[in-house]
Amino acid sequence: MAKQEKDKIADEVSMLSGIEKTAVLLISVGVDTASKMLKVLRDEEVEKISLEIARMKNVKPPVVDAVIREFYDLMTAKQFIIEGGIDLAKGILSQARGSGEAHEMFRKLEAETGTSAFGVFQSNEINQIVSFIQNEHPQVAALIISQLKNERSAEILSYLSEELQGEITYRLASMDKISSEVIDEVEEVIKEQMGGVDAMGDRVKGGSSIVANILNEANISVERNVLKQIEERDPQLAEDIKKQMFLFEDITHFDDRTVQIIINEMDKSDLVLGLKGVSQELTDKFLKNMSTRAVDMLKEDMEALGPVHVKDVEGAQQRIIKKIKQLEEEGQISTRKMSDDEIVE
Length: 345
Known about the structure:
Helix content is 72%, strand content 0%. By secondary structure, it is mainly alpha-helical. The chain folds into three domains: 3-113, no CATH class; 119-243, Annexin V, domain 1; 248-338, Annexin V, domain 1, CATH 1.10.220.30.
């Protein structure tokens, strides 16, 4: 296989989530083996993996091979650790697969177990993490954020000032490959101030996609502030991020059947509160998909509500978004944004 093709496959595999990789692995081993493996997992994990398997279409054989190889390497590394400790394991694997590949495997294991320099940011108290982030250069903060789970990154952002939210996420969205020397310096800072061991790979995953994923998990107030600040600095970058996100305003573009399902599943009090102050276009989208009686009741409830705090409105909108994501996970609706050439009138 040519180097260009190998790099392409590696990039495809790196874009897969842990759940997606598990789904690929289970598909590849067959029904009998897969069912035995699922038996040892929690119900919640089984549901997520099963949903991913159902969604999965054709997977390229080289991608399957790469996922199986990664799984095998990780299992081998774990076994060596159990049998002889981490130092012996590193020595054995370095001889067997070369120092570069062995090093990468142990980075992944450390990230999984939380023993990496960045593991402390997944498990430490939020106030300690925020204190550390606030006192570091925004570029260092962006590096750290790029290594965490989306939910944790979103939580950290919500505790930062609006100015710092925008500064960090702009740098994260603009981030490309980072040199090993810079990474080493960042690791030393973390080890010195918060503890931890060697952790990062030779590149940092940044760009608009990771910011979009983080903002999808963040509070709406954080989401809107960050997008506003990035838009002021780089409108095209902000647009790239928006295209990969689900925004409350995107409901305007949903088909009527989807909106009807959302209305039926929503807590009506959240609908009343969530539509306060939104565009007339978005309000009309909901109203046209409700019965005359339901429309009258909604309008009466909104008028009776009077002035409300913006945080209460954003909270209701967040709950509506959460319900929409749940409905999508259950396969009842789809929020995927389609291009013009995918739509047939």
